[in-house]
Amino acid sequence: MPTTFDDLLARARALPREGRRAVLGITGSPGAGKTTLAEHLVRELNGDGRPWVAHVPMDGFHLADAELDRLGRRDRKGAPDTFDAAGYAALLRRLRAPDDTEDAEDVVYAPGFERVLEQPVAGAIPVPPTARLVVTEGNYLLLDTGPWARVRPHLDEVWFCELDEDERVRRLVARHEEFGKDHEAAVAWVERSDQRNAELVAATRERADLVVRAPGRADGRL
């Protein structure tokens, strides 16, 4: 059934129940628009000046380049085994149930990701105790293998972003160019690394609670 952006806002607003914090996951293949949707949701939901929604991307759990070099995985940066998936799941558990822990009155700090440096930054994102909804986004939220399987139980809902394939690839190449790669290097990285990851993510689509097909339109199992 068709769904407007206002419907998505209403659905997100309804997630926190009985005063408890909720966590909304947004997933999809690289370049599908996850971050754009998450930022738009958070901005609109916080539009009344009361910051009750926080944005915590998965990208802060990238392993640092030095560790990827040690592991021999730097040429596959962005693949599932180049993230600290167990650490991400542990943070989600801590964020989702602060009322049951000693963190109830504390700010919880999450790592961020510096796009220019392509490196994670510890303690970059504060989540205050007043945040009743956390929006998190990343490629592998619905992956059910290895430590990634620990992620889904800590998410109240997961929405899957879907974009026309040609446009998704075009945007992905443009993003790599924006952050320093020349055109040929950007295309090669997308074809060698990003596309393999995209196929892995696409296989998780059916596990989503909602498929967001394009800005302002969605369909899902309601």
Structure description:
By secondary structure, this protein is α/β, with parallel strands linked by helices. It has one domain (5-220): P-loop containing nucleotide triphosphate hydrolases (Rossmann fold, 3-Layer(aba) Sandwich), CATH 3.40.50. It is 33% helix and 20% strand. The strands form two sheets. Strands 2-5-1-6-7-8 form a six-stranded mixed sheet, sandwiched between helices. Strands 3-4 form a two-stranded antiparallel ribbon. A hairpin with a 2-residue loop joins β7 and β8. α5 crosses α6. The radius of gyration is 17 Å and the shape is globular. Residues 216-222 have low confidence and may be disordered.
Compact summary:
The chain has helices at residues 5-13, 34-45, 65-71, 85-96, 165-178, 183-202, and strands spanning 22-28, 53-55, 108-114, 119-127, 133-137, 157-161, 210-214, 217-220.
Which residue ranges are poorly predicted, with pLDDT under 50 across at least 5 consecutive positions?
216-222
Largest sheet: 6 strands, mixed
CATH topology type = Rossmann fold
Architecture, CATH level 2? 3-Layer(aba) Sandwich
Distance between the termini: 9 Å
Identify the CATH class.
Alpha Beta
State the fourth-level CATH superfamily. P-loop containing nucleotide triphosphate hydrolases
Task: Count up the domains.
Answer: 1
Taking Cα atoms only, what radius of gyration do you get, to the nearest Å? 17 Å
Output the helix-strand order: HEHEHHEEEEHHEE
Number-wise, the strands total: 8
DSSP helix fraction: 25-40%
Strand order of the largest sheet: 2-5-1-6-7-8
What is the mean predicted local confidence, pLDDT? 87
Question: What's the tally of helices?
Answer: 6
**General form:** globular
Helix vs. strand class? alpha/beta
Beta-strand content: 15-25%
